[in-house]
Amino acid sequence: MEGLRMAERFDLIVVGSGPAGSAAATVAARAGLRVALVDKSAFPRDKLCGGAVTGRCVQYLDTIFGQQITPGLFRTLTRLRLAYKGETMGVIKDAPPLHMTMRRDFDAALHRHAAAAGAQVFAPARITRIDPAAPRVELADGRVLEAALLIGADGCNSATARALFGRPFDPADVSFALEVELPRRKGQFRITEIDLAAANWGYGWVFPKNNSITVGVGGMHLRNPDMKIHMRSYLEQFVSAQEAETAMQGCKGAFLPAGVYRKVPGAGRVLLAGDAAGLVDPVTGEGIAWAMRSGQLAGDACVAALKAGNPDTALRLYRQELAYVQREIDRARQIQRLIFFSPQSATVVRTLVRKPRIQRAFLHILSGERDYQDISGKTLLNMSMQFGKSLLTRPRVSGGAQ
Ligand SMILES: Cc1cc2nc3c(=O)[nH]c(=O)nc-3n(C[C@H](O)[C@H](O)[C@H](O)COP(=O)(O)OP(=O)(O)OC[C@H]3O[C@@H](n4cnc5c(N)ncnc54)[C@H](O)[C@@H]3O)c2cc1C
User: Fold this and answer.
1) What is the residue with the minimal CA distance to atom 3 of ligand 1?
2) What is the SS3 string spanning 69-127?
């Protein structure tokens, strides 16, 4: 009949080929599943992101993709300046490494790994409809894809989550970030910078890359109604007012689902991974590593369920394995309250810098060398006591943060 196209049949459809989707497609295709990997963009494509790849991320890059940290794709930095409203709180010369990358190149590499593992790529492909019950997706060119299982790895504005739950996230809960890309200049911007007061319940960053410098500010959306003002004044710490004006013209923004994960990451035969499942650390803003890990776990769960002949068990298997990641985000939320409850107090940041044990714990978390679970109870208690003290002694400052 005219207008009706035969559906192309797969074991698994993965929607979105960022770190989560490429990881899911790679492990599933490698295990022998027939995988359709659908992305609205052709690769390489841009993705707004600081592009800081942590130690945690390095581990998943290797185990999932066999991808190493190569100088062409990454710039590795071990020097870090911690600041508070522009005031230097400390320069750490031997911080655990952060590997700075451009997501355009990084994601294209992961996408290639997924295709090489055997996933059939549909990109660019605009999806006009997702039917979670089937599961089935319809593409703008009329093609219809059907599978036993579907993984939604389509980011913070996930169309898959919308098809399942009506909307991806409550806008009141998410974070928002702005970034600009500055040209690299000789002798300038050679270390990573973090300013813990550049935004409310968030921070500002300078991440030097191989060919440019990413400057950004981000924090809880509701607590930063004027993020552009924060961005502008943060930029002016580093460049002239004129240059900041020019840079602001290229300023871009995006939402991050930080600390707002879905307890049940999916429904029926649809699993959500990465940002679509809300797996961004609310303290550091790190999302790439958990995106890759959750994609891997979702892909593995689909493989196990299909091999057992029971696709309906995939979501349950995935939930069991994802529980650790969700607990880590719970712990991060607790620490987030400790750090940002008193954002006016520089004492909080000085504490980070001056107490070696706490500073080390913070750096290990920031660089993904350790999980929150690995920080000893004693250090956490110490942190709480220090932050508690700083609350009692904080200077009175009017306006700004809540
Ligand atoms: C400003 C900013 C700075 C950040 N900095 C860092 C950082 O330095 N380090 C870090 O670890 N994390 C950082 N993050 C978080 C990180 O970018 C995300 O957590 C990560 O990209 C999540 O990966 P993902 O695969 O889930 O989603 P994404 O990377 O968003 O990929 C989703 C994919 O789905 C595709 N897609 C979307 N909708 C559809 C559709 N309808 N149909 C088909 N395809 C679709 C997109 O084209 C995209 O390729 C930052 C985020 C922001 C916004």
Assistant:
1) 49
2) CCCCCCEEECCEEEEECCEEEEEECCCCCEEECCHHHHHHHHHHHHHHHCCEEECCCCE
